[in-house]
Amino acid sequence: MDATTMVLALALGNLALCATLFFFEQSGHAGRPAVPTWGWSRLYQGAGWLLLAIGAAGVVPEGLALPIAYVLVFAGVAWESGAAWERAGRLRWRRATLPALGLAVAAFLLCWLIDPIGLRAVAASLVLGGFYLSLAAALARGWAAASMLQRFLALATTVLAVVVGARGALVLLAPAGWGWMTSDILRQLHSGALYLLALVGGFGWLLLGREREQAELARLEVNDPLTDVPNRRGFFQALAPWMALARRPGQPTALVVFDLDQFKRINDGYGHPAGDVVLAHLINTCKRQLRDSDLLGRLVGVEFAILLPRTNLDDAAMVAERMRAAIEAERVKTERAMISLTASFGVTTIRPDDSTVTLLARADEALRVAKKAGRNRVEVAAAVLAPVEEE
């Protein structure tokens, strides 16, 4: 592939990605983090490569097209790196990127004025390699928790960025080539690396977005979106191994079930937004009373459960009492009123012969007793379930 064809392929590829992203956003999927930044990066790169191809073809004077084209390409790669940093949580990436881009453009233009062919190519290689290394660093952020796809993209981008930058470094060190590494081979490797970076960057970005969407869907299957604690399914998944451990000798594991008293009056009197504020406040209050190893989950409505590993019945009752007192002591500020809360608790421990059904039934029975005894209290489950009274 000759240089003109490669540049044209880069231009059309980046512009095609821009068009795809535009229609994707128009279909109602806009609003994903960093997508606008990444879209602008592809637009800048596509326009820059296209201008380079036009300049090489003689349609536009090369002296005018070439500097503008390279500035656009530099800006595009810098913005692509910024999009990766934005996705990694660094929202203020422009503070470092804009000065770096300004210095890179100034250095390139100076080299172009001194030597429009040799130094220009060296400066372009080093600038592009530097920005692509920044992109690789953003992809490598959070390496320990990163997926295999993200790790592959970080490594591949690093290797290709080094190849791009190596052309400029080797030309400076050995203008005639370095052994078998002739200038022609360097140029071919440089062109191939740029083409692969365009492919890896484009498909990698889209695949990472897809991967994150799947991870978020999987998280929502087991998490309650309002309170950001495990839902019923997620809680019972976490409970399962502790049920198995209860069949072996060792420290007991406790389960606490609690329910907000008369929550319906809050929704009816102050509206559902106030109810949401109350639930968020409740979760924060409860978490402050728990250890990192304890698990709080939302079973249904305003009924919650707490798994207390390595906790006996008396200690679990003390934890529940501490939470009850904390909930009662704090008033929740909403837009319409200051709301007082109380909650009722049922406490039990996992027994060797328990199933999730019998365990929850025993805790719910203790909670029912607490409600019947006047609410705002803690009840410990009886050794044997009381028979259900017929109404």
UniProtKB/TrEMBL annotation:
SMART domains: GGDEF (SM00267). The chain crosses the membrane at residues 46-75, 96-115, 121-140, 152-180, 192-209. It catalyses: 2 GTP = 3',3'-c-di-GMP + 2 diphosphate. GO terms for molecular function: diguanylate cyclase activity. Its EC number is 2.7.7.65. The keyword Membrane applies. Keywords: Membrane, Transmembrane, Transmembrane helix. Residues 251-383 form the GGDEF domain. It comes from the Bacteria. PANTHER family: DIGUANYLATE CYCLASE DGCM-RELATED, REGULATORY COMPONENTS OF SENSORY TRANSDUCTION SYSTEM. This is diguanylate cyclase. It comes from Massilia cellulosiltytica.
